[in-house]
Amino acid sequence: MSTYDESDAFEGASLAARAMAARPSPYLEGLNPEQRKAVETIDGPVLMLAGAGTGKTKALTTRIVHMLNTGKARPNEILAVTFTNKAAREMKNRVGHLLGQPAEGMPWLGTFHSICVKLLRRHAELVGLKSNFTILDTDDQLRLLKQLVQAAGIDDKRWPARALAGVIDNWKNRAWTPDNLPAAEAGAYDGKGPALYRQYQARLIELNAVDFGDLLLHVVSIFQTHDDVLAQYQRWFRFIMVDEYQDTNVAQYLWLRLLAAGHKNICCVGDDDQSIYGWRGAEVGNILRFEADFPGAAVIRLEQNYRSTPHILAAASSVISGNQGRLGKELWTEAETGEKVRLIGHWDGEEEARWIGEEVDAMQGGTRGLRGFSLDDMAILVRASHQMRAFEDRFLTIGMPYRVIGGPRFYERMEIRDAMAYFRLVTSPADDLAFERIVNTPKRGLGDKAQQKIQMTARANGVPLIEGARILLAEKGLGGKGAIELGKLIEGLDRWASLTQGELRRVALDADSVVEDGGEIERVEYGPPEMTHVELAETILDESGYTGMWQNDKTPEAPGRLENLKELVKALEQFENLQGFLEHVSLIMDNEAGEDGEKISIMTLHAAKGLEFPVVFLPGWEDGLFPSQRSMDESGQRGVEEERRLAYVGITRAEEVCTISFAGNRRVYGQWQSQMPSRFIDELPEDHVEVLTPPGLYGGGYGAAGMNSTLETRVAEANVYNSPGWRRLQTRSAERPTSQPREASKTVIDLQAVSAHSMGERVFHQKFGYGLIIGIEGDKLEIDFEKAGAKKVVARFITGTDDVPF
DNA sequence: AATCCCGACATTTTT
DNA sequence: TGTCGGGATT
After folding, report:
1. Whose CA is closest to A272, among A314, A244, A240?
2. Which residues, 6+ apart, have CB-to-CB distance to A480 below 8 Å?
3. Which annotated residues bind ATP (predicted)?
4. What is the DSSP string of A482-541?
């Protein structure tokens, strides 16, 4: 009955298989014995415990290629799941590379979510959805919940909708539907959680929409209640592979277990020591329990590290050994030389940033006895994103190019979401959430009152909002400017939709090009569309007044937003039509900004997982900040252990030079606080650590505290000196000579950039906005910013206001 | 309907 | 110290 076997056949791989079967497999030769075992153990459950930098992706991709080449599996029989699109993409690329051709034919290599979308589109009707359901992001989700909370007459001051969103997400992570919610959860969200959850799910079905959690939840539900469907996929996916298994939540675990129950050929790759997503539902228990869940599992440990020096590995091992209940791994390396992990304390956070700035500068030039590094080789990894500020400020001042990884993603930006709402409304007029989003953006004089009228009319007639608006207009239920503008908007939407008609119908027919049970696809001929979808997108943004809105906006962000809109339109070119684009975007939230020039990276420890850098700075190792107080308060010992794993992840990112630092004083929410060195510093192995002394007056910024005599700083000193971390630092420090005086930093002075400007000129800066030049000093300009106040900034980060695109 | 001002508040984040 | 959301104001 299934038509998959025929339709998904993959010719390329079988050709490759034949070609390679003739020779012994050369791709196996570069593997170490453990990797090789992981690659060749194909049948039965396998747990690959892969420590940081042990060639996990290599093993995983080679394993896929091996299965294909030996004819064990066809590409469409392998289910390979990752968490991020980036990981999926990389795997696809590497498999393709090993195969010597693009791995186009691996239809089931993707993220949990993207694979679930595919599955759910095929079986949507089993959970009451249509197969063209839309996927809501967290923003849509929150607005929906707000409406429900409001309708329930709940004081959203005491019980914010945000909290409800969190509760519901948690439930979904645990695969709890409204029907199988444990009794213990009844009290959630002031006792109204369960009822609101039920309402929310019902509303989603009404809207023919799902949130991210639903993608898994619905598929698990289908598997649990429809044996035939499950059996079909169990048969189909003969080999299952899972990356980052330590990050799976209960829903994902159930999903995998259900699918693997047939052939039991499941290979999970992960590292319990790198489980850092417990706070969003990941269960380390999943990986710890693997052997119990899958009896007879082969457990393979990848412990040979190809990334870091022995000192760095020793430091990481020493820290992580403080955790209980590990599966246990000991990283080792053939490398014999390398720098020790460097540890340094500073007087305060600003000095820490200043020191790192100078250090980066020096290392870039290859001074300090180290080889010269590119800025691209260096990264600063922080615990919390607010710590990035100190570095950004410092780097802007000294003209050090940097890039921030993470942060708001392209498709989460307001202007992008607005634009997308327009596109959504044009392709599916019944999209109420999109309608709500843009009905008064740009301002059309349609405030709360007018929008309520539309809502009521729509509800009374049981139609989508846009139809409600039509009726309201026809009944003359709205007057004045609002009525005229609303009329124009609806007229516009109709017109834009008509321009896309041909495309729409074609898309609906070959959606996913899957027809089950012998259904026939009927091809219909269409004339050429009246304009390309790219032109259409431009027309929509233009005629709706949306572009104009930002062109007239004088805030410093406006030019950037217009720039983003341009980029959005450019991104459209890669798709056949608007619909296809929207589908893609709802799942791919990547921010692949084209990077120019060498830059040092700043990111959170979480964002750094999976990355590596020759030079890594780990600032802010202070108790309360790292480990974070909140984590310890909320999760106690378990929290500390997750923080410790974060420390482990941080250290193991470094290949050659790893520098840990802390500050004795730090401004927290504007208040100065004295800080104690992190407990993790005590867990570093002395023999592998070199303690540096910061430059500055009286032989060290941190120690120089003594010259200050205010009560506050004495208290600070007392605290700091009493901490075990500090005592140890002192002893070690005394044993070693202080570091040589710093060589002069050699920032290139760019006088040309300065000469382009003059006193009193109005200029623009990416981060600080507009301001007037009030001073010139070397290659720096002193600027009185309208929003940010007076600052000295390197001239090349400044543009004259004439240059700013409006 | 839009703007302004005040108080509460403050990890980590992918899909 | 900054941001965001709500209530009061224009």
Report:
1. A244
2. A445
3. 50-57
4. HHHHHHHHHHHHHHHHHHHHHHHHHHHHHGGG---TT--PPP---PPPSS-HHHHHHHHH
Asked whether residue A262 is marked as a ligand-binding residue, the answer is no
**Short-list A106, A689, A643, A586, CA closest to A344:** A689
Checking DSSP bridges between strand A613-618 and strand A378-382, what pairing results, if any?
Answer: parallel
Per-residue pLDDT tens digits for A629-669: 999 998 899 999 999 999 999 999 999 999 999 999 999 98
Number of neighbouring beta carbons within 10 Å of residue A800? 14
pLDDT 10s digits, A716-754: 343 443 444 444 444 444 333 333 333 333 333 455 566
HSE-CB of A683 using CA atoms within 13 angstroms: 19
Cβ contact A387 with chain B strand, < 7 A: no
Name the closest nucleotide to A157, judged by C1' and CA: C6
Total Cβ atoms within 10 A of residue A149:
24
8 Å CB contact between A244 and A256: no
* Lookup: nucleotide whose C1' is closest to A634 CA: B11
3-class state of residue A344 by DSSP: strand
Which pLDDT band, with edges at 50, 70 and 90, does A558 fall under?
Answer: confident
pLDDT band at A49 (very low <50, low <70, confident <90, very high): very high
Confidence of residue A516 (pLDDT cuts 50, 70, 90): very low
Q: Following CA atoms A161, A166, A169, A170 in sequence, which dihedral angle do they give, to the nearest 10 degrees?
A: -140
Q: Is A728 a catalytic residue?
A: no
| CA-to-C1' span, A614 to C4 (A) | 39
Given a cut of 50, whether residue A12 has pLDDT beyond it is no
* A56 in catalytic set: yes
Comparing CA positions, the residue from A72, A71, A92, A70 lying closest to residue A81 is A92
One-letter identity of residue A748: V
Active site residue: A77, A211, A244, A348, which one?
A244
Query: Residue at minimal CA–C1' distance from B11?
Result: A384
CA of A104 to C1' of C9 (A): 61
For residue A353, give both structure tokens: 């940033």
- The rounded distance, in Å, linking the Cα atoms of A530 and A538 is 14
Residue at minimal CA–C1' distance from C6?
A157
A286 touches strand B (CB under 7 A): no
The model's pTM is: 0.81
Q: Is A775 annotated as a binding residue?
A: no
Residue position matching structure tokens 């992570």: A173
Q: Which amino acid is at A518?
A: G
Nucleotides of C strand lying within 7 Å of any protein CB atom: 1-2, 6-7
User: A318: which 2 tokens?
Assistant: 């020493």
User: Shortest CA–C1' contact from A146: which nucleotide?
Assistant: C5
Mean pLDDT of all residues belonging to chain A:
82
Question: Of the listed A140, A211, A214, A243, which one is catalytic?
Answer: A243
A54 labelled binding-site residue = yes
From the CA of A148 to the C1' of B13: give the distance in Å. Answer: 25
Lookup: tokens for A235: 């048969």
Strand B–CB A248 distance below 7 A: no
Contact, A669 CB vs strand C, < 7 Å: yes
| Residue A675 bears catalytic tag | no
Q: CA A433, A435, A436: angle at the middle one, nearest 5?
A: 65
Predicted local distance difference test score (pLDDT) of residue A56? 94
Cα–Cα distance, A674 to A623 (Å, whole number): 10
